[in-house]
């Protein structure tokens, strides 16, 4: 066996080890400082961006920030307030005019009708009428009616399908024929597994998608991928 001896003295080796350790400590400290600065800058940017979006929404949405709390409690809705607010704000941000809704949640239907100043085409098995004017004191805009079971075959630029009894693919298939080329579709789902299994179906139907989670409520935003449709043709 051949024994190799180092040409460095013990003191030199200790000094070298200390130097390496110091360099590593400096690198770690620099990384932590950089990470904190980056986080601070991003946080500031996001904060500014949020404030800009908030001001923009306040200008175009006369009912910004309004939640029909009493109605929610009465209807025992499980929808997150941020989700309902998001769905309402979408109408103003994209200037959607025609809205289709399929859900068992009356709170959502009434909130959209009262807060968006749009006609709501509400697909439901219920046939009762809604007294929306009772909410007049809570909002700053005109209240339009809810059209129950509207069978119009025309296109809609905003479709929301939150039918609890149907899968993602069933919900999409049901309303896709009525989606305007520049419109948006919002579908709710419960399990990530179901969404992953539906990805191929969405792609095959030339749909762009993005998922958002609002506490316990998960939704998919869908829009037609017109570029892919053109390329396939």
Give a written overview of the molecule.
The chain crosses the membrane at residues 12-37. Keywords: Membrane, Transmembrane, Transmembrane helix. The protein has 233 residues and is an alpha/beta fold. The chain folds into two domains: 9-50; 61-230, Rossmann fold, CATH 3.40.50. It is 48% helix and 20% strand. The protein has seven helices and seven strands. The protein has helices at 10-60, 69-75, 81-94, 106-116, 168-175, 192-204, 226-232; strands at residues 99-103, 120-123, 146-148, 156-162, 179-189, 207-214, 217-224. The protein has a seven-stranded mixed β-sheet with strand order 3-2-1-4-5-7-6, with helices on both faces. Strand 4 (156-162), helix 5 (168-175) and strand 5 form a beta-alpha-beta unit. Helix 3 (81-94) packs parallel to helix 4 (106-116). The radius of gyration is 27 Å and the shape is elongated. Residues 229-233 have low confidence and may be disordered.
């Amino acid at each position: 066996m051949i024994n190799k001896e180092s040409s460095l003295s013990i003191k030199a080796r200790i000094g070298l080890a200390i130097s390496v350790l110091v360099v590593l400590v400096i690198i770690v400290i620099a990384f932590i400082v950089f990470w904190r600065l980056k986080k601070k800058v991003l946080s500031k940017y996001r904060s500014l961006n949020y404030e800009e979006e908030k001001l923009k929404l306040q200008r175009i949405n006369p009912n910004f920030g309004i939640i029909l709390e009493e109605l929610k409690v009465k209807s025992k809705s499980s929808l997150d307030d941020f989700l309902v607010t998001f769905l309402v704000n979408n109408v103003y941000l994209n200037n959607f005019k025609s809205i289709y809704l399929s859900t068992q949640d009356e709170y959502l239907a009434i909130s959209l009708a009262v807060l968006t100043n749009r006609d709501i085409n509400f697909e439901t098995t219920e046939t009762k009428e809604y007294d929306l004017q009772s909410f007049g004191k809570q909002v700053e805009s005109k209240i339009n009616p809810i059209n129950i079971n509207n069978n119009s075959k025309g296109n809609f630029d905003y479709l929301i399908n939150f039918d609890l009894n149907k899968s993602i693919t069933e919900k999409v298939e049901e309303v896709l024929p009525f989606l305007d080329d520049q419109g948006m579709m919002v579908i709710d789902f419960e399990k990530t597994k179901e969404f992953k299994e539906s990805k191929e179906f969405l792609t095959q139907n030339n749909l762009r998608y993005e998922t958002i989670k609002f506490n316990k409520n998960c939704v998919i935003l869908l829009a037609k991928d017109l570029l892919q449709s053109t390329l396939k043709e």
